[in-house]
Amino acid sequence: MVEYQYVIFPTGFTEDKWVQMAEARPTERSVVHHIIAYVREPGSNYFKDQKTGVFFEAPPPKSDEKTDRSALPSDFLVGYAPGQPAEILSPGQAKLIKAGSDIVLEVHYTPTGKAATDRTRVGIVFAKEPPKERVLTLSASNGTFKIPPGDPNHRVDASFEVLRDVKLASLHPHMHMRGKDFEYRLVFPNGETRTILRVPAYNWRWQLWYNLTEPIALPKGTKIECTAHFDNSPNNPENPDPTKTIIWGQQNWDEMMVGFFNLVFDAKVPRQALLPRDEAAGGK
């Protein structure tokens, strides 16, 4: 087992920066399960006592079926998983890195039995002018599930309610070895329900972002609902131990259920306006 590796590096930005393109790229893909670059704004408590510029391991959060540890710890700038392309936003759209922010790089290495060296990099391209629209990566997630031993089709649900008018631009389902299928639905305030993505044969070894041809307008009160199924049976060739009860965890042999998505909104609107009250503290 390799615990998540983290390193914090200051951006040195003395003014707000808008990012139109970003990519996290390992040099040895065979040993990298995923990379996430988070934006840590000034005043954030996220790893506030850790030194910058030095790799460190953080103990995994204690997790059980009663405690939800699935929320993103900070602003999601860009990620990498096998199959995931660079983040390229449309002209006039960008993600915000506020002045004085740090980048927290999370890298999850997976042993292959052979020695390897990786030098992960993050590249960003700034917008040429301040954008009209801001893009924020959020998620509907569930960290309290409990998958019984041998269950071939265990259902887990999650949802996120939109707190103001926004547009939905892209989707990214995330599970681990037992992930079987994943679906996104929209439930509008008028009661209309629309299925917008079905992934009937999820493959954790090739995780895609699904970019919508045209963004979907979501009025305030719309719910983004996600449903996933997990195969914890002996018939799943990826399943390392069908006799175990599976809960949320960081390692590949644990499970996750996250429906990432990108929301697009007026660049003048603070990010807190899109978040539930208990997640909105700290950061604009």
Structural features:
284 residues; mainly beta; 8-stranded mixed beta sheet; Jelly Rolls; 5-stranded antiparallel beta sheet
Account of the 3D structure:
The protein has strands at 5-10, 17-25, 32-40, 56-57, 75-80, 87-88, 93-97, 102-109, 121-126, 133-141, 154-161, 166-174, 179-187, 193-199, 210-218, 223-230, 258-266. The two termini are 36 Å apart. It has a single domain (5-277), classed as Jelly Rolls. The chain is mostly beta strands. It is globular, with a radius of gyration of 19 Å. The chain contains no helices and 17 strands. Strands 2, 6, 7, 9, 10, 12, 15 and 17 form an eight-stranded mixed β-sheet that branches.
Shape field: globular
Q: What is the CATH C level class, in words? A: Mainly Beta
Query: Quick one: how many beta strands?
Result: 17
N-end to C-end Cα span: 36 Å
